[in-house]
Design a protein that fits this description.
The protein is mainly β. It is built from 2 helices and 9 strands, in the order βββααββββββ. It has one domain: Jelly Rolls. The longest helix is centred in the middle third of the chain and has 4 residues. It is globular, with a radius of gyration of 14 Å.
């Protein structure tokens, strides 16, 4: 019989800091990996993570639910969108992303 599993981002399984303005808190529960990502004001993928990832644009697929703050995304073809609290977004590979405004952007991501 399956059991209820409870975990909290207050005690994540792992904390990753791939760049100075990014924190990725990771929890694994029920066979799923959950990420709470926080990017600080001034963060931009093409500035802060491009040198780390060594690709021209972000090549990850991001299914996200925005918790707080604002996030911008621009696809390589120029398509652009802005996301805020309560928004659900799917951002496919081939994009840039950035924090909008003076507050951190915080989102939940469950990669597949």
């Amino acid at each position: 019989m399956a059991a209820i599993e409870k975990k909290s981002f207050n005690l994540p399984d792992e904390v990753q800091r791939p760049a100075q303005k990014v924190k990725d808190e990771v929890i694994v529960a029920g066979g799923l990996t959950f990420h709470r990502v926080t990017t600080q004001p001034g963060w931009r993928w093409s500035i802060d993570l491009k040198p780390v990832m060594k690709t021209e644009s972000c090549q990850k697929h991001h299914p996200i639910y925005m918790i707080s703050g604002r996030l911008g995304a621009r696809m390589n073809d120029g398509q652009e969108a802005e996301f805020g609290p309560g928004d659900l977004a799917v951002v496919p590979p081939g994009h840039d992303g950035w924090t909008i405004g003076n507050a951190p952007a915080v989102w939940l991501e469950i990669p597949h």
